[in-house]
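G.,

No rush on this.
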Amino acid sequence: MATGTSLNGLESLLSDFMGDQSLTDYIVGGCNDCAGGIPGAAVNVTTNAASPAVRNGNDSSSTKIVTSQGTATGSGTPAALQWVKKKPDTSPQGSFDSSTSVQGEWWVFVSSTTPLPRNLEFDLFWGDGLTGHTAMWGTHCAFQAAGGSGNWELDAQDGTTPAWRAAVDTATHAAIPCDTTLTRGGWHHILWQVHHDNPNASSPQIYYDYLTIDGVTHIVTAGSGTWGFKNSNNNWHTLGIQVQQDLNASHNTLTEYIDAMSVNFW
């Protein structure tokens, strides 16, 4: 695989979000009312928090994200997200503008005391700001959504319905399960490899290609992983990665640890 340019890990970049302004090439942020859930979720982010378990033998700190009901009331579920994205390059054709392949990497730990959430989301996004095309690769583990599918689902993003579709494995022809792999109380390693067509091509599309969980790789079928560009009027000029937490119907508090979150592009 070609070598890309990597954004730094979420832990240090969220320090930027908490007040360290030395990371001038990146923007780090989060929100609780833009994540698609009912407004009012409360989010507390702690960088360099003590991890509940050591990762890779010597990594004992991570970013702790606690999402709770806050002021959210009514039907639906509260949600929140946190992102890391590259600032737009000053040149008309920046370092990431012409990239067509993206790989996202996350290390995630969900507290063993956390009730099953509705979804845990892991997303990648790209926009060149020149053609007006935006690629948003939205993926989540649907623990309790859609009747509790327990599978990986992909966001079509192009306005077709249903918006979320099961990610189907080419070898098994079945939806890729997640509730049996993203178990609570342990670290898990997630890799998504995706790409998109040149926006100048006729009917350009985005593709979800490979999902690797704890070293096991799934090839996503073309039928479940090929969609149009994001149906949006926003001319994004950036590249980034994010995580999102969707609480369950009981609005139970969710405690999630994220470490070594990065994105490569080429």
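When you get to it, here's the other one too:
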Amino acid sequence: MTGAQRGLLSMVFAPDYASSGRVYIQYVIGPSDTVQLDELRRSADDPNRLDPSTRRHVLNVGAAGDYHHGGQLQFGRDGMLYMSTGVSGDPPSAQDLGDLHGKILRIDPRPSGAKPYTVPPDNPYAFAAGVRPEIWAAGLRNPWRFSFDPVTGDMAIGDVGQDTYEEVDYLHHAEPAGANFGFDVYEGFHKVRPDPTPERYVPPVLEHKHNPYCAVMGGYFVRDRSLGSLYGKYLYGDLCRSKLRAVTLNAAGASGDHAVGGFFIPGPISLSEDNQRRLYSVANDGGIYRLVGVPVKHRKAYRPSRRRTVASRYR
């Protein structure tokens, strides 16, 4: 990513990548600050490269300001592509259902006839007049990173706050589509504008006040059993905090939020996982760190059932 939050934001492999070779990228075109979604395919000559000649434009979100572009792509268990977008400017457009900014979008990115993608018919606004049918959820400021729990299908979103609060939003897999997370009427748990509470409003499950927090880095549900007691928890960070945090998220809310000890990530700017569910963090120092579970050493022996997590610099 370059200055003004331009450049590549996210890439994701299609569920059938082994056979199709499809990869999707989300990026920002400067100086118009247009968020774009494209498809590329694996090179026939080198399986470790994408073939730029196969690039296909899928979705143009439209021009925004210099910052707050969102920037996460994830395929859900339903095989659909989910895409986060942010807002900037005043007033923001997060509550405007005719605008794609400040939303989670959901599409089938494969072409259908002359259409570059299709809207799933079970999207909450698929057939609503005057509303963008791609919208899955609204009312977000800068959902820089979100993820799905691969076991339950639940979704968690780290939404970077504006003036006072950072927040984590959560959707149980059985929650009806069309959630509205409240920005810019709400920030964190707090109503900051006199406007009516949005329809389908879903409050956050967790907030952190600015100073010492400044920009939440939405994380992942831990499904790497080598990380011991962290298994099943949601792991996330903040740009201004060198310790990652873990919390239990479920339909009842958030509980047990705490800093994960034993290691430091110098300015975490993103978290990710591989196809074996191992977790990584990208840091402001240019490093990529992998989280590793190691046995706790006792005076006389190792006790394999007890493990601690460390961050090993991956590259």
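Residues 13 and 275 are 10 Å apart (CA to CA). The two ends are 18 Å apart (CA to CA).

Enjoy the weekend,
O.
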